[in-house]
Amino acid sequence: DRAYYEFSDDEKSIIKRLFAYEFAPAGTFGFERAEVTKGGVKTNFLDENLESKSVKGLYFIGEVLDITGVLGGYNLHFAFASALKVASTLKNS
């Protein structure tokens, strides 16, 4: 982790180009070809009950998290399992 001023001029140029990058998706392959999302809330910002470490009472579940499983229903299973975990945590609190 470095502050912006610590980067060389060449590195700053690359960073500026990344922030200026524009693209326009031409479409998708549709729901039939959809698999998983990418990115999301990092799990190291959450406790074992999927609650934000910095904002008490804020929970994250399913594909909003930066978790990706193999194809075959694992992501869907995780979405339901993480929802159940949070629901049981809230019920018992």
List the helices and strands and how they pair.
Layout: H1 9-20, H2 74-91
Describe the structure.
There is one protein chain. Helices cover 32% and strands 0% of the residues. It is flat. With 93 residues, it is mainly α. It has two helices and no strands. The mean pLDDT is 89.
Roughly what is the average pLDDT, rounded to an integer?
A: 89
Q: With helices defined by DSSP (H or I, 4 residues minimum), what is the helix count? A: 2
Could you give the count of β-strands?
Answer: 0
Helices and strands, in N-to-C order?
Answer: HH
Assembly type of the shown chains? Answer: single chain
Tell me about the largest β-sheet.
none
The percent range for helix content is: 25-40%
Rounded to the nearest angstrom, the distance between the terminal CA atoms is: 37 Å
| C-alpha geometry | flat
Radius of gyration: 19 Å
Proportion of beta-strand residues: under 5%
Structural class: mainly alpha
Q: Show unreliable segments.
A: none
Tags for this model:
about 90 residues; mainly alpha; about 30% helix; flat
Care to give the gist of this entry?
By secondary structure, this protein is an all-alpha fold.
